[in-house]
Amino acid sequence: MSDDKHFFLRKPWIYDKKAARPVRDDAAGGFETRSLHAGFNPMQDQNDFRSFVPPLVQSITFPYETFDKIPCPVYGRTRTPTNTVLEERIAALEGGEACLTAASGSQALFNLIFTIARPGDNIVTSLNVFGEGYKQAVTIFPERCSVQFRFVKDPADAASWDAQIDEKTKLVWVETPSNPCLFVTDIQAVADVAHAKGVPLMVDNTTATAALQRPMDLGADMVMLSISKFMAGNATILGGALVGPEPLVEDIRWNTTEFVGAIMQPMEAWMTLQYVETLSMRMQRHSANALAVARYLKAHPKVARVNYSGLEDHPQHALACRQMSGHGGLLSFVAPGGMQGAATVMNSFKLVVHAVTFGTSRSICMHPPTITHEHLTPDERRAAGIDDGLIRFSVGLENPEDIIADLEQALAKA
What we know:
With 414 residues, the protein is α/β, with parallel strands linked by helices. The protein has helices spanning 3-6, 31-37, 81-94, 105-116, 131-145, 158-164, 187-196, 227-231, 246-260, 266-276, 279-299, 317-323, 338-348, 378-383, 400-411; strands spanning 98-102, 122-125, 148-151, 169-175, 201-204, 222-226, 240-244, 306-307, 330-334, 353-354, 364-366, 390-394. Mean pLDDT is 93; it is low at 1-10.
């Protein structure tokens, strides 16, 4: 944004359903090219640097040119040169107008809702969302901000979404494919019912990333990301992002983030820029490995159910093939023997790591009912398909035969 505009932007963002979604001018070229070049040109963006890679600028404050000329950036809570490169790159990859990074994906969600919703408003979503988002939806915002969340009964039916939207709805929020059960929501269908009532749609694209899915091409107005997962890919980064219309992004930047102060640090932004360069290759390998693992698990006599949209019998397999170019590296399966059976399998792994995250280069597993989704009631977990024996499995970049061999020996003990 221009220097004479950015600092004094205080007008709240208002969704205009008639406005066409803008497309970035620098979003030209293929995905792999944008992953490497968007936001920084070594031949042009030199300033005081002469660098092949985007510079890491750790400064939290930036000198004024003169008394009455406010610089942009001015302070680290709002913008830094390194974060700006990452934000422009993510916006170009997702096909949105602007991007704002945050301290985490959960923080990005909080900043969005805190900015657009007021007491008495509501947000429409489903139970197919990440655990910390659910906690915000049922406790944080209703109890502390009087913003209510409505959960659709049948997320596969567009009419179920439509039935929950009213004149106080400020946002429709979809996570697809969902964590941990890989439910695939029809983005275009939900966008159509939301837009018919003048409500914007936000899609959490963490599991697929823009390498496999472009929600804004399917009608979404915003995209939310946990950079900590597949985008960074190795469990070294904590960060999140929101992509959307520039007026909304800048409203969040100057009216929420500036005061909350929970930002993604320049070092994390710089490291993410390095990792994003290989995102396309990594997601292809994650997808290929995950499909091999899912097919193995599907054929295993002890496994009750496998959740992976790449399997032909997945309930939304055809939909996933239409709106995604690959099925990603996350799956889940139900071990025999309920919670104890899941514990036995997970404790028996030798290669696969038991820890809380997903999207890492190493294969990793976790038990959603007792960790990420423990706040759901038993009935809600059943409705979302989160069985007691469910194991979330993030398939890494190892040789797939080695991953399968570890599963084989662990399942033998169940």
